[in-house]
Amino acid sequence: SVLCGNCCGWRDTRTLLCLRASASKFPMAAESARDRFHSHGSSAPMSAPLGTDSSYVHKGTDLPNEGSFFDRLLSGMLFSSDQARGIAAALFYVVMSFSMVFVNKSLPEIFDFSHTNLLLVMQFAFTIILLRVSRDVFHLVDFQDFDTTKARIIAPVSLFYVGNVALGLLSLRILKVPSFNVVKQLNPVFVIMMDFVVAGKRTGEETIRSVLLLVVGAVLCANHDAANGDLLGWIVGVVACLMQATYLVLIKSASQKAHFGTFDITYYHCILSLPLLTPVMFVTGEFSEAMQYQHWSSGAFLTMLFIFNLFGFFLNFSIFLSTNLNSPLTTAVAGQIKGFASTIVGFFTFGGVTVSMTYIVGVLINVCGGWYYAYLKYQERARTIMSQ
After folding, report:
1. Is the pLDDT reported for residue 165 higher than 70?
2. What is the pTM for the complete model shown?
């Protein structure tokens, strides 16, 4: 009760976090609790809790870096209750995800800087440096050093990761923000398809009805945009969704084989993506064109470039934090709130949207489909927990 008074009845991540927060104060009790935790047949989560060595989650070894900032954040030392931590994490995710859409859009729209591959090379390099400094200097996070054996496991998945990110940026550059959000809402459609193709997993009728709403809304919006010459953005966005769905299906098994947590995955993806993007950046002439850009000395442009790189890192962190501290419903609802809010703001920013009744109806159907799908996934998760 000393170790787990705030989370009795909860398993896996919350118990591990509680053990980690208490280990330095009650080392003998913590060791005993660890033994009981593993002896009860707890199934380790796919991703390690933030700030922990993922090898502990999978192998049961000692916990490093106890008492770091992220440990205190996750174990509740900076917030008074589980509810307060969950709300803070969900709000952080909504703010970061919402902001990232408009930061990405502002570079080509406001600053006329649309060199996608160069932007990704800078962001990945920045993320590698920030992760190493955060781990080696400030001891804020923990992840595994680069290993060629594990790199071979994760490398095929990185191809789909970088493809999704690059094509997503290109789609956002072409489309208006509301249309881009409608495209991204199609992700569940391709995830369901990939689950069936790869794992033979069948989907319930209600879930199929929800994704059909997503598809119908997207078709109506795409028909409107095609008349305005933006069909290419939709094609690119759909391919990005397909790559993301493939990535989500493959990353599950790859991360388990390599014993990877979220920061391990991010670190390896960034390292492996640089050799893929750098040659493309030079072959396409994108680098030489970027060097002729007139506003490299502009304080406003450099500030936005720094925000782009920084927010890319914190968006990944916010997703992981919200997923670990909240229920699936809370995270899904937070994502829908972000999508709805950015869609509304997108109607009035970056030149606005030339609307029609078909387009408005399409957006509304797509939004309703997204909420319906999130609700069904929550019910599915709740039934799984009740059956265990």
Report:
1. yes
2. 0.72
